[in-house]
Specification:
The complex is a heterodimer of chains A (83) and B (416). Chain A has 83 residues and is mainly beta. Chain A has 1 helix and 6 strands; from the N terminus they run βββαβββ. In chain A, a hairpin with a 7-residue loop joins strand 4 (47-53) and strand 5. Chain B is an alpha/beta fold and 416 residues long. In chain B, a hairpin with a 4-residue loop joins strand 15 (280-284) and strand 16. The chains are: A mainly beta (83), B alpha/beta (416).
Chain lengths: 83, 416
């Protein structure tokens, strides 16, 4: 499996660490549903919007969709948006 | 039909004409007392104990593929009771005791082999941790022996004791741990459940739930609608998808775990051995193949096949630990879908929908739990109250904080 970093290009999966579903970025406000945010998962069989850390490359936190059934990946984007 | 040596002899004399299929090919009735979704080890065991312990006359097992086509046929067949945290400890201890008499109970040769489980340690700190774990196992009433390097070398002389990167200092031996023939477990439970009147319905996928006023009344399947007041889900890695069809989310991520088998070799690995550095464990099947595996691939997947990095990691760990197997050829590799929970422990509890029950979150330890899981889940479905063995496997423990975090890695589903 290869993932495409917007800064470094297509790289081996070993360079990346899976962080979690992109819904982790939607941290609730104080008093919100923290249990659901921390523990519950959509867990789809199909496209999953997720986060990868390019820790053996540029170090950027990246976001993109991957199909959990076929492992087909779309090019990743910077999770924090372009500057 | 009762199986015995005499039966084998009698059937041999009359050309095997008396053998019958293990279970009927049942067609779904319109209504049952209870439905168990999932024809794997947990589901079939649950149906069997529903009939045997609670006397439910009309029970159906719905299996989307065929019996034994899921994780019960895709694991590495290890049974053990090496847990330390209350909740897990008594549960897996009871499960191991059930394994010891299960072949007689089900009248089926499960090839149960308590060959001993060796968990290696490689540092002083790890030895201390295993000494503590071993003491916890002894207090629970199971067995554990802390072996030093020479004691281990007498048992398994073929490890690489000369390597200095991850020196082998000894092992925690769990003598009653071992292996059980996995397919036979599924077949035996299916046969025993069928003999007590359970309908085992294969090629029947649940596509939706009938829910009225917050209570489940039946399921929609590829073979039509089926009504039942009590429905249990025991679908391993597919729990999240099935929960979505019932309208709720679970604290579960589905990850892929790979395993491998080599060509058949003469017997030389007489234990189950787990490596303490890197995630690697190995045993030798009765057919002679080396059965081994490693950690999950660390990203969610429903593919039932893994990627190369983890396969390479497992092979590298094997070569570090026992270079002797380096020329064995790998015949097969496969992946199973694991339902990973935030604390690495399972859930046997009511679902958020009344009448619906959950048996999920077995991470990669589901196989050894099959007998106790079936017993506890059947108790929950039949009585509505948790079985004493599984009362801590609650769905709400992530909200209450009463988690059972054996590895202490926190709310990260994929790190357990």
């Amino acid at each position: 499996m290869r993932l495409t970093c917007p800064l470094c290009g297509a790289r081996d999966r070993r360079e990346f660490t899976w962080i979690g579903a992109a819904s982790l970025l939607g941290r609730p406000a104080p008093g919100g549903d923290f249990v659901g945010w921390a523990h519950l998962r959509e867990n789809p069989a199909g496209p999953l919007d997720e986060l990868w850390l390019h820790n053996a490359g540029c170090g950027a936190l990246l976001r993109g969709a991957r199909d959990t059934v076929t492992h087909a990946t779309a090019p990743l984007t910077l999770a924090g948006g372009a500057r | 039909m009762h199986y015995s040596g005499f039966r084998v002899l009698a059937e041999a004399l009359r050309g095997g004409k008396g053998w019958r299929p293990f279970w009927r090919k049942a067609a779904p009735a319109s209504e049952y007392d209870a439905i168990v979704i999932g024809g794997g080890g947990h589901g079939l065991a649950t149906a069997y104990y529903l009939a045997r312990e609670h006397g439910l006359a009309r029970v159906a097992v719905l299996e989307k593929g065929w019996v034994g086509s899921g994780n019960v046929g895709r694991n590495t067949t290890i049974v053990r009771a090496t847990y330390m945290i209350p909740g897990n400890q008594e549960f897996y201890s009871a499960s191991l005791k059930m394994w010891e008499t299960l072949a007689q109970d089900l009248n089926f040769n499960l090839m149960y082999s308590p060959r001993g489980l060796l968990q290696l340690f490689h540092s002083d700190g790890q030895r201390d941790a295993f000494a503590r774990r071993g003491n916890a196992m002894l207090l629970q009433g199971d067995d554990a022996v802390l072996l030093d390097r020479e004691g281990l070398r007498r048992l398994v002389p073929y490890l690489d004791y000369a390597q200095t990167r991850y020196p082998v200092h000894g092992a925690l031996l769990h003598p009653r741990g071992g292996t059980v023939r996995h397919d036979a477990v599924a077949w035996a439970y299916a046969r025993a459940a069928d003999a007590r009147g359970v309908d085992i319905i294969e090629n029947c996928e649940v596509t939706g739930f009938d829910i009225a006023q917050g209570r489940v009344t039946g399921v929609q399947t590829t073979r039509g609608g089926i009504a039942a007041p009590r429905i249990g889900m025991a679908v391993a890695g597919r729990s999240g998808q099935l929960a979505a069809r019932a309208g709720f989310r679970l604290p579960v991520e589905s990850h892929i775990l790979q395993a491998f088998v080599t060509e058949g070799l003469k017997p030389f690995i007489h234990h189950v051995i787990s490596y303490g550095m890197g995630h690697f464990y190995i045993s030798q099947s009765d057919k002679g193949g080396l059965v081994f595996g490693g950690d999950i691939d660390f990203y969610p997947s429903y593919a039932q096949r893994g990627n190369l990095p983890m396969a390479e990691h497992v092979m590298e760990a094997a070569m570090t630990l026992m270079p002797a197997i380096g020329r064995a050829r790998v015949l097969r590799g496969w992946g199973g879908i694991m339902d990973m929970t935030p604390d690495g422990s399972p859930i046997i509890d009511h679902a958020p929908v009344a009448g619906l029950f959950l048996n999920t979150g077995w991470n990669y330890g589901g196989f050894k739990a099959i007998p106790a899981s079936g017993l506890a889940f059947a108790h929950l479905i039949a009585t509505g109250a948790p079985h004493a063995l599984a009362r801590r496997f609650r769905l709400d423990r992530f909200a209450s904080g009463a988690v059972i975090d054996e590895e202490g890695t926190g709310a990260t589903h994929h790190l357990h």
